[in-house]
Amino acid sequence: MPTTEAVARVQLVFSLFDADGNGYLEPTDFELMASRTVEALPAGSAEAGQALSDAFRGYGATLTSELDADGDGRISPEEFTAVVLDPQRFDAVVDAFAVALSALGDPDGDGLVERPDFLVLMIAIGFQPDHIEALFDAFGPVEGDRVPVVVWADGIRDFYRPDKAGIAGDRLVTG
């Protein structure tokens, strides 16, 4: 049974992934989200940008194949919420997304994401700046106001876990 926090996180993700704001998730939403996010950090490598674009497309394709119950080519909020918290169906997609996004946030390849890069990427996705700051702080920045790439990637994975509550990612919902 998903926690209340997990359901709130999923509802937030749906609203952010609905990049065109029409109330449904469609392939164009994932293209818009990918381009907006990759363009937000021009210092990121082309390979990291391509990996993130591929991860967004893969996420969208998986959603359509797994969740489009009525076959209309788009995902409603109800279709999304009912199934996306199933780890067996989405772990691989979430993992690819977590690895790609956190890697894009490390343009110098030192294994650490600096606060400004983290903020730019998370704002591009659509999260609120004060919530992003709270999340970054919850990740326990190390010297130089940076978080390890692996910490951010693990935080993304936790964000999609239905059994998780009280995680750092909950700050994206509640600030």
Task: Describe this protein's structure.
It is a single chain. The relative contact order is 0.17. This protein has helices spanning 4-17, 27-40, 46-67, 77-83, 87-104, 115-125, 129-138, 149-159, 171-174; strands at residues 112-114, 146-148. A two-stranded antiparallel ribbon has the order 1-2. With 175 residues, it is mostly helical. The longest helix is centred in the first third of the chain and has 22 residues, at 46-67. Helix 5 packs antiparallel against helix 8 and helix 6 (115-125) crosses helix 7 (129-138). The mean pLDDT is 90.
Short account of what is shown:
The protein has nine helices and two strands; from the N terminus they run H-H-H-H-H-E-H-H-E-H-H. With 175 residues, it is mainly alpha-helical. It is globular and about 50 Å long.
Average pLDDT value?
Answer: 90
The count of DSSP E runs of length 2 or more, i.e. the number of strands, is 2
The helicity comes to: 55-70%
Give the H and E element order. HHHHHEHHEHH
- The total of helices stands at 9
| Beta-strand proportion | under 5%
The chain-level structural class is mainly alpha
Shape: globular
Rg from Cα = 15 Å
Q: Poorly predicted ranges (pLDDT <50, ≥5 residues)?
A: none
The separation of the N and C termini measures 24 Å
Give the biggest beta sheet: 2 strands, antiparallel
**Spatial strand sequence of the major β-sheet:** 1-2
